[in-house]
Amino acid sequence: MTESGNRYVSDEILDLAGARIFYLTRDPNLIEQQLDGIDIEPVVNNDLLDRVSTDTYPTRACFRFEPSYMAEHAFTGISLGPDKTIPPSSIKNAKFDILAAGKSFGMGSSREHFVWSLKEAGIKLIIASSIEEICRRNLENIGLPYITGDVEEIISQILIKQKIGFDDLTQNMDSITQQVVRQHGLFTYLSAVGNLEALPKPNTANHPMTGPEKIIAAHMGVDAVKPGDVGFVDLDYRVSYEIFLPMSISILRRQMPNSKILDPGTVLAFYDHSVLDLNFNAQSLGKQMRETAQQEGFVLYDGDYKKGTRGICHTVLNEEYALPGQILGITDSHAPTAGVTGALPIGMGSTEMAGALRFKKSKITIPESILITLEGHPNPSVMSKDVVLYIMSQLKNGEAANRICEYTGPALDYIDFEEQSVLTNMVPEIGGFTGWIRPNQRVTEYLELERKIPHDELVKMLVYSDQNAEYKYYVSIDTSKLEPYVALPGNPRDSWPLSQVLQDNSIDKNVNKVVIGACTGGKLSDWRAAAEILINQKVNPKIQLFVYPASTRVKNKADREGLTEIIYKAGGIILPSACGACVNFGPGSVSKGERAASTTNRNFPGRMGQGDVFLVNARIAAATAIYGSLATPEML
Predict the structure, then answer these.
(1) What are the distances in angstroms from CA 387 to CA 291, 412, 499, 500, 523?
(2) pLDDT of residue 365
(3) Non-local CB neighbours of 192 within 8 Å, separated by 6+ positions
(4) Which of 50, 71, 244, 342 could tie 121 with a disulfide, CB 3.0–4.6 Å?
(5) φ, ψ for residue 312, nearest 5 deg
(6) Residue 376 and residue 372: Cα distance in Å, rounded?
(7) CA–CA distance from 401 to each of 398, 428, 435 (Å)?
(8) pLDDT value at residue 166
(9) What was the pLDDT predicted at 11?
């Protein structure tokens, strides 16, 4: 990967004289013209492509992280029409210098390959209406400048001035992030600082704080923090898996040769995402991670393509590790899952993890928070997936963007621990920084009974928000009035009441695959919900039903309760624990022309394959498998 420091900048100026701008537009024809070397007229904001996800860097391309390889695959997941995507090496060969995009650029996963591919393909500056949290941090950490705001106005100024100053690039950033950007990346900054203990810390006076703010303050070694404060937090655990850990190790060894990894026994390495994939490069990554984990003394959760893995990292963290008051750094955008325990999880990219491996710390700018209060008693047809999809349908104006989503309310007393984990797991789909659930009866029962934490010890761990803590937004939801929801193919935020979708004749509701699985939808509660619908029923002959347990613990409990037998007799295909189809790495992945209903968390184009995916709860998934198209249990 490109070394720190960039040939196209001075210390203060990004020289853009003669720069070629790539407008990522809604019009595929204009994209093709630009790829063919034709410069087009400036594109207005409304015509730029919004919600460009990191999945536009293909999942399978993540098996390798050589600079030239990543450059070849920049944006190769972007569709230019039926059965047509941006060809390999097109971005690099077109010699673009500036990328212009719309809102929510870089939404989705934490895959740092996405931003590296753009940098290695020659992009020197990204201009977007807005950039999502992990993508933004990844850009800062690898030294790829960006600026957000009115794209038309920004570009008009660049065309006039032919340059942009670093004061302009960093004017809305905190002091430490400004230095990271000016130093052209995280590791150059860390090397310049030398002693992390000498880093400045916030000097905020005591005041009412949210629970997450209290946790951050404790891990920064200060009395109080407020939104906008910045510093480095100590990490209780660092968690990664085969797609990212070898890349993080490579970055660390290149940037700081012979450096020691601090406290390796608190690094957890999982072989879970591609464990069922027989691709040589996937197997090679697994082998690299296994050897590194054994050499460095990491805790290794290994696996193989026949037996799967002990469990998906997010599930195992909740089952065995995460505790109230901890901070966990995880190379995955679904890191917030562990927020159900009262821990504060932080998603990060490979460069950020490389720094965390060396120093056991991570830079954080304290986000604002929103408080989501769940009222009422959810009816039996509604699962937490529906609650989250409803929230996404309501927060369409960026209310959750890059903020901590804190959940509370009496409805939590009726939602079991596993189901509450969906509320935090899907915070990235809402657009939030991370998720956190206030201590409640269902969570404390789980920690005491399942995790065997003595009551007196648990009470000391619990962190509560102060009564007068401040929130940017307050959201109240009467769960008793909710019904099952569905996210339409292409975007989890495109969520609607299922009853409304079933009545819309313009929507093709046929499916040929149903997937019940992943950290989001492979829990014991999902197996129970599916089995309740599938008992004494048969899967429709035109449907394949794939069922993944989120961990071997889930599978063992499902076996004891007879759930596995019910699903098997109905015609379901039972698979080993793995992320599998959720990331297009196993049975149930959706090929071109296919359509699936899935309990997973993300349905961006290319995420689960080249087909279309509806996101639903486990009861709806099971009913759909029987009926042959989107259906409710009442339709059977």
Answers:
(1) 42, 12, 15, 16, 17
(2) 94
(3) 179, 183
(4) 71
(5) -65, 140
(6) 13
(7) 5, 9, 12
(8) 82
(9) 56
